Amino acid sequence: MFEKVDTVQYPEEKNPTAPRYHGRHQLNRWPDGLEKCIGCELCAWACPADAIYVEGGDNTPEERYSPGERYGAVYQINYLRCILCGLCVEACPTRALTMTNEYEIADDNRETLIWTKEQLLAPLLPGMEPPPHEMRLGQTERDYYNLRSAGVPAGPPPASGPEGEAGEPVWTLAAEGFSEAGSPEAPPPQAARTPAARAGDEPGDEQ
After folding, report:
1. CA distance 21 to 32
2. Which of 13, 44, 167, 191 could make an S-S bridge to 52, C-beta 3.0–4.6 Å?
3. Tens digits of per-residue pLDDT, 96-154?
4. 61 within some domain
């Protein structure tokens, strides 16, 4: 109440966010590049704003996107509805979904605020291979979840930058699926209206 007002010349100057700031979501990967999302839809069920839409798909030996039987074939988050509460992150059983420190997601086009799986996926780090491909870190799904006992660090690494600048995720451990900010520019949204688009309608029009 009696603290001095902190005024910065945004966007030229940006205050650093708190380490656990709830910003834009990220879909994480295993160290070999396979996706952690298994398409279970628990995040969508946990979302109080009905902002998440997920469609699960089946992995095959010829086309594998995750270590398990299923993967998230379609994944969308509607940031017109999202309240950045983090309940979806808590509901995720595989830690596939986390939240970065990125907060600059405003736009003047409603359709571009429905983010797709391609926009949410973490960028590939060195040593990762873009899916689909076979499992590199084990023969079964259990092998992937036992990576920590095999010597993969389980604790959080230090911040990604000395300044902890705003817009940069704090965690950078590839084994946990976290990566630095600066993913490739998001592709344009799909022209076709998908099931998640219903969440972009004006407030009060729910049936």
Report:
1. 27
2. 44
3. 999 999 999 999 999 999 999 999 999 999 999 999 999 999 888 888 988 855 555 43
4. yes
Q: Which domain holds residue 109?
A: 24-148
Q: How far is CA 99 from CA 8, 57, 63, 72, in A?
A: 25, 24, 28, 18
* Overall number of domains in the chain: 1
> In b/e form, how buried is each residue of 158-188, taking b as 16+ CB within 10 angstroms?
ebbeeeeebbbbbbbbbbbbbbebebeeeee
**pLDDT range class, residue 5, cuts 50, 70, 90:** confident
- pTM, full prediction: 0.70
Residue 43 burial (10 A CB sphere; 0-12, 13-18, 19+)? buried
177 in a domain, yes or no?
A: no
